[in-house]
From TrEMBL, chains A, B:
PANTHER family: ADP-RIBOSE PYROPHOSPHATASE, SLR1690 PROTEIN
CDD domains (alphabetical): NUDIX_NadM_like
Chain ranges of the Nudix hydrolase domain: 6-140
Originating organism: Mucilaginibacter sabulilitoris
Pfam families, sorted: NUDIX, WHD_NrtR
Database matches in PROSITE patterns: NUDIX
Name recorded for this polypeptide: NUDIX domain-containing protein
InterPro entries found in the cross-reference section: NUDIX_hydrolase-like_dom_sf (IPR015797), NUDIX_hydrolase_dom (IPR000086), WH-like_DNA-bd_sf (IPR036388), WH_DNA-bd_sf (IPR036390), WHD_NrtR (IPR054105)
DNA sequence: TCAAAAGTGTTTTTTATACACCCATGC
DNA sequence: GCATGGGTGTATAAAAAACACTTTTGA
């Protein structure tokens, strides 16, 4: 039979958002020991009767009020002493979401005082090994941006090509050539040009585009190269 | 405080080898319930006082007699019912090794009757969700082969360009053009041509090459594209 | 001398890069 | 009318792909 251990699995979530040309990440202020009052990634313990994917959804909801995020695990952290109170192995997940499309952030449980967006530049020291978890996750999505259409998960449904480009530039941390970027993006054929323009700007309004998931699926089996 | 759960972490290892132009994987025959007598990936339970990376090394050693493999985790499997006797979350690791450089396979514990190499084509149904774990791992290394120098971990220290190419072909499951392959590989500059030739073949002996890790490190920060 | 694999270049096509000016709009 | 970002094309360079024959060796 299986041994009985006092071992615990947890989930930690690295949730990226994009707002005002800046890449942000979702943090909570802890309301529990250890690391009470510290900033941390949203994370908690997996129950015995839920899969880790389900646990990730639930935990994020409880700590931030956000639901139905599409999260993907990216790494498992299993050092013996990563949690001061015992053996806790944590599976880290990431998601990319539209900040504006979301209602306000409101923790449902008492474990977090609040949840809020913080720019990825100038992150403070986080609780546990969460700074390391964040870095690993950031590197993953940076890599993935090159060959998967994850950028569109961060933008509003309708976006301009300039917004798309500035997102790429923010994540990859480098400038891209405007003409080449647009040429390549449009050449893939999965962007649908809308009959609509940007509103409320004090300069020439840009065309709006939509990501066409259907077409993407037909064209690619998950491959592209940008940046 | 942390709750007490009857939860267990385990490690499963997907170990690839290359022999006779064929990609192989290391399997064990189980000597324990559940799935007694079934074929399975080498895997076992993580102790409370060891990191998951350490556990992976230990477990592989105990089940196969292989030591000092450089393993990397690639995914964590956490469905509730993946183990019939209770909640077990498993972290899957892979490694690529030289079959010929290794001594014989000899399990150190009683949990495995034997360990052996099996071609990745025509794998039988494995215990637990190990078939799924294998598939996930195989896809990972197939992806990684494109941009990381992992092929050299599978070949003997000295190898011919044809051996290298046939390894790429076996993993990617497609034919590559000989001239283009050689041109590109050599252009990277991390292959060292030796003053030595193949022996014991009944045809023109090919030059032997070595992977120059030093040069690779200098030239790349982990990037290349082949296949 | 034959079988088997080693070794070798050139052309074409595709993809990436570099680069600068006029346009439309709101204030 | 001016400030702001929107929008556009071409030329060059680099990389990838297609393609077939001669050489060496051992048996």
């Amino acid at each position: 039979m299986l041994p009985k251990f006092d071992s615990v699995f947890s989930i930690d979530c690295v949730i990226f958002g994009f707002e005002a040309g800046e890449l942000k990440i979702l943090l909570i202020e802890r309301n529990e020991e250890p690391y009470k009052d510290w900033l941390a990634l949203p994370g908690y313990i997996v129950e015995q009767d839920e899969s880790i994917d389900d646990a990730a959804e639930r935990i994020l909801y409880e700590l931030t009020g956000l639901r139905d995020m599409h999260m993907q695990q990216f790494h498992t952290f299993g050092e013996v002493n990563r949690h001061p109170q015992g053996r806790v192995i944590t599976v880290a997940y990431y998601a990319l979401i539209r900040i504006n499309g979301q209602k306000e952030l409101r923790p449902v449980t008492q474990y977090a005082k609040k949840a809020f967006w913080h720019p990825v530049s100038e992150l403070p020291k986080l609780a546990f090994d969460h700074s390391e978890i964040f870095n690993t996750g950031f590197n993953k999505i940076r890599r993935r941006l090159h060959y998967q259409p994850i950028a569109f998960e961060l933008l509003p449904e309708k976006f301009t090509l300039t917004q798309l480009q500035s997102l790429y530039e923010a994540v990859l941390n480098k400038k891209l050539d405007k003409r080449n970027f647009r040429k390549k993006m449009l050449s893939y054929g999965f962007l649908k040009e809308l009959d609509e323009k940007q509103k409320g700007v004090s300069y020439r309004a840009a065309k709006l585009y939509k990501f066409d998931k259907r077409k993407y699926g037909k064209i690619f089996q998950g491959e592209m190269t940008i940046g």
